[in-house]
Design brief:
This protein is an all-alpha fold. It has one domain: Alpha Horseshoe (Serine Threonine Protein Phosphatase 5, Tetratricopeptide repeat). Helix content is about 65%, strand content about 0%. The chain is flat and about 35 Å long.
Length: about 110
């Protein structure tokens, strides 16, 4: 006797969250990976991943996290420059973008003055 589709032993494909593109899910997964590297003490690898994410991630989070990690590693001048750039770029962004990125703007502003 055959097995019905309901009792199949193969795993179902992960569902795409409604309204999210595969590229956005991939960016989120990449960010999660970078954060895991950082949490695991693999700082240089995390820096590399945050830098790569900064090129395509649709928000300021990886750049701000990159700057925070630079600060933690004692590379304060690089971090300050990065934070100032984030603030400058987001000040020119449309209001809805500034609202969505408010948390990261606030961190970048605070850290650029530190």
């Amino acid at each position: 006797m055959g097995c019905s589709p309901a009792c199949s032993t193969t795993s179902p494909r992960p569902r795409q969250r409604s309204g999210e593109s595969k590229a956005k899910q991939s960016a989120e997964a990449h960010l999660l990976y970078a954060r895991a590297l950082e949490a695991g003490g693999r700082s240089q690898e995390a820096l590399d991943e945050y830098r790569a994410l900064s090129a395509y991630y649709p928000g300021a989070e990886p750049r701000v996290r990159y700057g925070l990690l630079l600060n933690l590693l004692g590379r304060r001048d690089e971090a300050r420059t990065l934070f100032a750039d984030v603030v400058k770029q987001l000040r020119r962004a449309p209001k809805h973008v500034r609202k969505l990125q408010g948390e990261w703007i606030a961190i970048a502003e605070r850290e650029s003055r530190a």
